[in-house]
Write a structure and sequence with these properties.
Keywords: Signal. There is one protein chain. By secondary structure, this protein is mainly alpha-helical. It has a single domain (27-115), classed as Four Helix Bundle (Hemerythrin (Met), subunit A) (Up-down Bundle), CATH 1.20.120. The chain is built from four helices and no strands. It has helices at 2-43, 47-65, 72-89, 93-116. Helix 2 (47-65) packs antiparallel against helix 3 (72-89) and helix 3 runs antiparallel to helix 4 (93-116).
């Protein structure tokens, strides 16, 4: 019984580490999906497709932002995604593409910051 009680704290700590790692991986996957969708906006020629891709990217970024609400790069990236949606709905593909490139710059800053850790 004493042996079991002595290993319980270790099991608890290990469980916390595994859960934390799973959250980081989920966040990374959402960011990668947002980047893929935003890259697709840059390549898209149809403004309706641009709008749809930007909306999907925005959903992924909101998921990442829920775990890190004060991240300035996520906030700026979201603003650029809103610009993509606004510009593509106004049939301004070039302006939407420019906003997508700006959003990618913000998302790449997040990736670079994570690599440095």
């Amino acid at each position: 019984m004493n042996k079991i009680l002595s290993i319980l704290p270790s099991i608890f700590i290990l469980s916390l580490f595994v859960l934390s790692s799973a959250n980081v991986q989920a966040e990374d996957i959402r960011l990668q999906e947002a980047i893929k969708q935003t890259e697709a906006v840059v390549l898209a020629t149809d403004v309706k497709v641009m709008t749809q891709l930007a909306q999907e990217a925005k959903e992924y970024v909101i998921g990442v932002k829920s775990t890190d609400p004060k991240n300035e790069y996520l906030q700026e990236g979201l603003k650029h995604l809103d610009d993509i949606i606004k510009e593509s709905q106004a049939d301004k593909a070039a302006a939407a593409r420019k906003a997508a490139i700006a959003a990618l710059g913000e998302f790449n800053q997040i990736e670079n910051k994570c690599k440095l850790k």
